[in-house]
Each structure stands twice: as structure tokens, then as C-alpha cells.
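Table 4 source record.
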Amino acid sequence: MNLKHIYSPIAKDLFKVDSLLNESLKKTRYAAILELNNYLLESKGKGIRPALVIISAKACARTSSAVTSALTKIASAIELIHVASLVHDDIIDASALRHHKPTFNVKFGEDVSIAFGDYLYAIAFELIASCKNTDILSCIAQASRALCEGELIQVCERDNLSLLKERYLLIVKKKTASLFAASCQAGAILSQSRQLTQDSLKEYGLNLGVAFQIIDDCRDLTGSKEKLGKRPGLDFKMGELTLPVLNLIFQEPQEKKNIIELLRNQDDEKAFRSLSFKFLNSSAFEKTKQEAFAYIQKAKSSLGHLKDSSYRRSLSALADYVADKIESDV
């Protein structure tokens, strides 16, 4: 099942999000900023987070025109926060490609990219503030703080070869899953659903986000530049211990010394290919898949409080879509 089919119940809502993003990014009077904004609009991602906001809200109840207007703003804001984090991420990681195109830091320089990421955060919170909902503001502000904390912890722990799985999961929950969770929770808050439903959807988003990142880390080891839209092995080249590598060390203890040596040769393409081969041909690959699938199952189980609808089915299908990605590059 593809995203177009999964998003079909909210296709009109996503069109409104795209329209608002265009409007928000094109109303500047400054040509230099407009160039940046247009480049961003040309590099559209999968839109998972704004879709989660809308689907979660509509899975809870019928939405009024006032709620629909707020949904569009919140979904757009969360997408801007996500993109801002990617712009800053690419600077930190010295990434050259994203979505098959040069990253902002490559095309416009690091100084401009830092300021542009901040600019996107500002637009996002301007949209959130216009909804005049302090619960939504608190929800997204907390997620933004968690995202930044996750990034800081990850950067500070680079080259720490004693990193444990618990620390890896802490970083993933903060840096990636927090915004997934906030997307779902914000949608539930906007639909004025009961607390149990809000908590369940937040849990769904958190578990989906963890699975998403585990699978993304797997694909970083096993995928190709053509399928990923960026150079594979970036985590490896930055000296980061992701779950696939941690599992490889745990499952193949006799290889620990060799694996750590490969990690120390981060700029060696041959070393990366060797690590990728070891992972794909070890029990660590299956172990990592099963851990990702366990989070997918937890996410789907969290939907039990929702009535059956096309929106609930879309949430379940989105979890399956994420799970299928782990096999797509092998």
C-alpha cells in the first residue's frame, strides 16, 4: 500500500496544508529569503507528520470548520518544525544530499542554513500561536524541546563506543518519536477527545516514531543512494552507534573488535561496505527487524480505543507502510 492510498481520506486536507505552507513561505518581501523558501517547497517530503495530525483528529470525531482551520495550521507548523530540524541536522552531519537534491548547507552555506532553520521554527510557532490553544502550544513546545535535547545528546555521545541500547532508544524517542507523538496528540486535542484517546494516540505516535527511526537506521546500512535520496552510511561516517550496529556487536561478540575498528575508519568506503555485509549476513539483521516490528505492533495496539473508520484504518496502514520499508532496500 502506498502513501497516496493511505492519505486518500485526507487528500483535501493535505492540499490545504500545502497551500498554507506556500502562502506562509511566499509572503516575504525579501528576494534572498524567497529563494530559500522556494527551494524548500521544491523538496517535498512524505508529509507523514502533518498527515498524522489530521488523521488523528478525524479518527476521534467529526471536525467543524473552525477545527479544520486550526488543523491546517497545526499540521503545517509541525511540518515546518520537522523541516527546520532537518536543515540543522544536515549542517551537524555535513550531509550533501536530501531527497536527491543538494542540502541547504551545500547550496547556500552553513551560516545561511542555521538562520533559515531558525526562521522556519519562528513561522511554525507563529502559526501555532494563531490557534490560541495553550494545550496545543504546550504539546508542541515540549516535543520541540525533546527533539533538541535528543540532538544534543546524540552529538555529545558521538564516538562513544560504549553507548548502550537504552541510551540509543532515549535519543530516538526524543529526537524522532517526540514529534510523531505530538502530531497525533495535537490532532486529538483539537478534536476535543477524551484524555484516554489523547494518551492512546500519543502512544501510537511514539511507538511509530521509534520504529520509523530503527528502520531508517537499518536502511542507512543496507540502502542505496538511489533509494534513500542521500548518501548511505552517514551515521557510520559520523561515528554513531545505531541499533543495527549495537545488535551486530551483541549478536557477534567475537567480531566486536573488528566492528569497532571499522567504526574508527569512518571515511573508509570499503570499511562501510564490510560492515553492511556483516550486518546483512548476521542474525543482527533479523533481530533489528523484530525489534522494529514490535514497536509497530505496539503502535497498532494503541488504536484499540478508536472506533472503526477510514481514518483508523489509515493509521494502521501507515504503521504497516513504515514496517515494509525495512525490506525495500535489501
